[in-house]
Amino acid sequence: MKVKNLKWLGFVLAVLAAGTAWAGAPDSWITTKAKIALLTADGVSVTAVNVDTVNGNVTLHGKVKSAGEKERAEAAVRGIDGVKSVKNLLQVVPDAFKESVKANDEVIKEKVEASLKGDKSLEDVKVASVNKGVVLLSGKTTTLGQKLQAIETAWKVPGVQRVASEIETGEK
């Protein structure tokens, strides 16, 4: 009887140790998935996005142009596996999105492609199309972090209105 109890105790301790080692990973995974969701969500134009996750509780920071966008951003993050709650601190700032010069789609495509070429880890990411400032990225990345990097790189290009992604990753 004691041998069985010791085996069971060893199993429980191994599970607890594995859980402790994994404890930090879900928050970083949730943060990355939330950023991707915000940056690629239809009808959401978040700038200077900041996502903080602690024990599955997400806090959103940044600017949006309407109350509707603020709600859509929160809904996009709430739908992510592992999210327990969302504290939405996004600011509604309509004038933050006024463009002084509208860039044409071909110029935007060239600039996004040049930006992506500047990062060797994104060499398999391509600009599939640009339509009215909406950039569609395709290709492959090894990690979810690289996918986020590609999306953020595209967002930084002046004239980009939205980024959509068909990028495949080696991670889930």
Structural features, described:
Helix 2 runs parallel beside helix 5. The protein folds into 2 domains: 73 residues, 2-Layer Sandwich (Histidine-containing Protein, Chain: A), CATH 3.30.1340; 65 residues, Histidine-containing Protein, Chain: A (2-Layer Sandwich), CATH 3.30.1340.30. The N terminus is likely disordered. The chain has 5 helices and 7 strands, in the order H-H-E-E-H-E-E-H-E-E-H-E. The chain has 172 residues and is an alpha/beta fold. The longest helix is centred in the first third of the chain and has 21 residues. It is globular, with a radius of gyration of 20 Å. The strands form 2 sheets. Strands 1, 2, 3 and 4 form a 4-stranded mixed beta sheet that branches. Helices cover 43% and strands 26% of the residues. The N and C termini lie far apart (42 Å). 27% of the residues are buried.
Please give the oligomerization state of what you see.
single chain
Structural class: alpha/beta
Q: What helical percentage do the residues reach?
A: 40-55%
Shape from CA axes? globular
What's the tally of helices?
5
The third-level CATH topology of the largest domain is: Histidine-containing Protein, Chain: A
What is the terminal separation in angstroms?
42 Å
Low-confidence stretches: 1-6, 8-24
| Domain count | 2
> Strand percentage, roughly?
25-35%
CATH architecture of the largest domain: 2-Layer Sandwich
